[in-house]
Amino acid sequence: VQLQASGGGLVQAGGSLRLSCAFSGRTFISYYMGWFRQAPGKEREFVAAMSWNIASIEYVDSVKGRFTISRDNAKKMMYLQINNLSPEDTAIYYCAASLTSVRLGVDYWGRGTLVTVSS
To answer: Minimal CA–CA distance to 76: which of 10, 3, 8, 7?
Structure first.
């Protein structure tokens, strides 16, 4: 399995971005997919996750109402729509895949895409 995140960039506060994660390898629908982020000088943190059938969707409290996770099983893609960005959202965003739950353990990590939010 390989994961490749893209879509990061420099954006002003209040702006939006759509991150994408391309999955290659084994059966995409076997995997619980999620996003993590790591801000400068901080630990990597969970952001959002979604089960293969979209029955389970989770967000960290700090992004609820602003971030939306989605996936297209046919295209083997996962997305993160990020709205109303703030400088506190500046981080490298990583996509992750797990056969169980990304919050319990990640089997595969993507390389990450940098999101920088200017005030």
So the answer is: 3
Q: Biggest alpha carbon distance in the chain?
A: 41
Six-digit token pair at 1? 């399995």
Q: Which residue has the tokens 């629908």?
A: 29
Q: What is the pLDDT of residues 64-97, one digit of tens each?
A: 999 999 999 999 999 999 999 999 999 999 999 9
Taking CA atoms, 47 is separated from 41, 74, 80, 92, 96, in Å, by 17, 24, 10, 12, 11
Tell me the CA distances in angstroms from 67 to 12, 30, 41, 62, one per residue in order.
Answer: 16, 24, 23, 9
Amino acid at 57: I
- Do 61 and 81 contact (CB within 8 A), yes or no? no
89 CB-contact burial (10 Å; exposed 0-12 / middle 13-18 / buried 19+): buried
Phi, psi of 9 (to 5 degrees): 170, -170
